[in-house]
Design a protein that fits this description.
- The protein has 6 helices and no strands.
- With 140 residues, the protein is an all-alpha fold.
- It has a single domain, classed as Cytochrome c-like domain (Cytochrome Bc1 Complex, Chain D, domain 2).
- Helix 2 (31-39) crosses helix 6 (116-136) and helix 4 (78-86) crosses helix 6 (116-136).
């Protein structure tokens, strides 16, 4: 009888782990965190070149991302947009846009002391957050 109880407890623990861990792995980025990064100085600082809602003196150096999101990027383009943010030069060789996935631009001074694996994981998460924020700009 005790073995059955232990077995049931093990199954319950596995199920609980699955419900907690799986969404964390497959979950998209966080739009609110992405907005902080996009507006943040010196983090991503996308507002230095791109137009975003709520910016008092919007820049006109680079394309208006609100227009791009509404007129160019569909849901099926999410991975392409992520790749552009990761390495813009791959898509636009003459761009001045930084390649956020290649350097340490999305890391604070303290975070640059993390292991390369931890840095990559953090940068990847932040790029996902930025992509999620950009998709939140689309008119519903």
């Amino acid at each position: 009888m005790e073995k059955k109880r232990v077995f049931k407890m093990a199954i319950m623990a596995l199920l609980l782990f699955a419900f907690i861990a799986v969404p964390a792995v497959s979950q998209a980025g966080n739009a609110a965190e992405g907005e902080k990064l996009v507006h943040g100085r010196p983090v991503a600082n996308c507002v230095a070149c791109h137009h975003f809602p709520g910016i008092v003196m919007p820049s006109t150096i680079a394309p208006d991302l609100v227009d791009l999101m509404n007129n160019l990027y569909a849901e099926k383009d999410r991975e392409k947009l992520r790749q552009i943010i990761t390495d813009a030069n791959k898509f636009f060789p003459d761009t001045m846009m930084p390649s956020y996935g290649k350097g340490k631009l999305l890391l604070s001074k303290e975070e640059k002391s993390l292991s390369p694996e931890e840095q990559k994981k953090l940068v990847d998460k932040r790029i996902d957050d930025i992509v999620e924020y950009l998709y939140s700009l689309k008119k519903k």
